[in-house]
Design brief:
The protein contains three helices and eleven strands, in the order αβββββαββββαββ. It is an alpha+beta fold. Helices cover 26% and strands 43% of the residues. β6 and β7 form a beta hairpin. The model has no long low-confidence stretch (mean pLDDT 89). The strands form two sheets. Strands 3, 4, 5, 6, 7, 8 and 9 form a seven-stranded mixed beta sheet that branches. A four-stranded antiparallel beta sheet has the order 1-2-11-10. It folds into two domains: 35 residues; 88 residues, Acid Proteases (Cathepsin D, subunit A, domain 1, Beta Barrel).
């Protein structure tokens, strides 16, 4: 039986090492994500992520999404592509003043469910072209009692509408 060429052996070793490193990084990121979001039924605690933002996992009309918590946004927003994929009803068009300037968008309606038990049924949101991630704005956050301290957002679920 012939032995494998030396170059193939080295390539195989590097492939195995790269796979182990990749899986290790994925496991670390998963563990960090789980410890960044904690809900105990009465309170939700979200730790700032590595990107400097707070992320709240949830669903829009049953589709899992990761909301970027945006306390500076008046309303919640979705990428236009996601709104179209979900077939959300369009209620009209609007102009939104974003960090990148004024953009044309569509007003859509969806059911929003956030991990921890927060719901907003038939919520009007803006669907914007070029938006890469869903934004959770003050139209939802303003219904809840919350505080920010030392890189942690805490929401008291006993005081807000669910």
């Amino acid at each position: 039986m012939n032995e494998l060429p030396h170059g193939l052996k080295i390539a195989t070793v590097w492939l195995v090492v790269a796979t182990v490193v990749f899986l290790g990084v994925q496991a670390l990121m998963d563990r960090q994500q789980r410890t960044r979001f904690v809900a105990d039924g009465t309170q939700v605690e979200i730790r700032r992520a590595g990107d400097g933002h707070y992320h709240w996992p949830g669903q829009v009309n049953g589709r899992a999404v990761d909301f970027l918590v945006d306390t500076g946004a008046t309303g919640s927003a979705l990428p236009l592509s996601l709104a179209r994929e979900l077939g959300l009803p369009v209620l009209g068009s609007t102009q939104s003043n974003t960090a990148g300037g004024i953009v044309q968008g569509q007003v859509v309606q969806a059911d929003l469910v956030l991990q921890g038990g927060v719901r907003a049924d038939r919520l009007r949101m803006v669907a914007l072209p070029g938006l890469s991630t869903p934004l959770l704005g003050m139209d939802v956050l303003g219904r809840l009692k919350w505080q920010q301290d030392d890189g942690v957002l805490r929401f008291d679920l006993g005081s807000g509408a669910r």
